[in-house]
Task: inverse folding
């Protein structure tokens, strides 16, 4: 319904523009006819009158086309939208068990901290929990990302680390 109102408003705007164009064309052409009438020595047989007539019809045809577009938008009916409702079914991810045998000591510490945080933790909180330096945590997370065990997502000035 809102889209239909927007179309009507745009349609009225276009109609207004078409009317203004038509008025400007007519005023301009009347001015041209006055100028030609005063300056042309051939009188009514002056070829400028033919050029003015052609220019007037072309200009009015363009204004009429714009007017038709505006009328179309004003009187076009709202499209019928078919809305289908679907049930959202949440499929629980079966967490793949982490193979701690393939991880080194430092990676195990990070992964256990992640598991304790239900799989999501800020990178800065990992620094606090593990007592590792920021650089060390970042490098360990790089390795874990390379093994596709975690994913880092940028949040403001820090990262959120998520188990995959």
Result:
């Amino acid at each position: 319904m809102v889209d239909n109102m927007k179309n009507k408003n745009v349609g009225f705007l276009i109609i207004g523009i078409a009317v203004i164009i038509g008025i400007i064309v007519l005023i301009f052409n009347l001015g041209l006819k006055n100028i030609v009438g005063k300056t042309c020595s051939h009188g009514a047989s002056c070829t400028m009158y033919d050029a003015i007539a052609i220019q007037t019809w072309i200009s009015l045809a363009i204004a009429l086309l714009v007017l038709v577009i505006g009328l179309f938008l004003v009187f076009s009916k709202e499209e019928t939208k078919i809305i289908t409702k679907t049930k959202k079914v949440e499929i629980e991810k079966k967490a793949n068990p982490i193979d701690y045998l393939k991880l080194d000591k430092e990676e195990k510490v990070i992964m256990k901290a992640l598991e304790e945080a239900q799989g999501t933790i800020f990178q800065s909180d990992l620094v606090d929990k593990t007592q590792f330096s920021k650089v060390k945590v970042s490098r360990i997370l790089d390795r874990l990302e390379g093994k596709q065990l975690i994913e880092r997502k940028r949040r403001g000035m820090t990262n959120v680390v998520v188990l995959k």
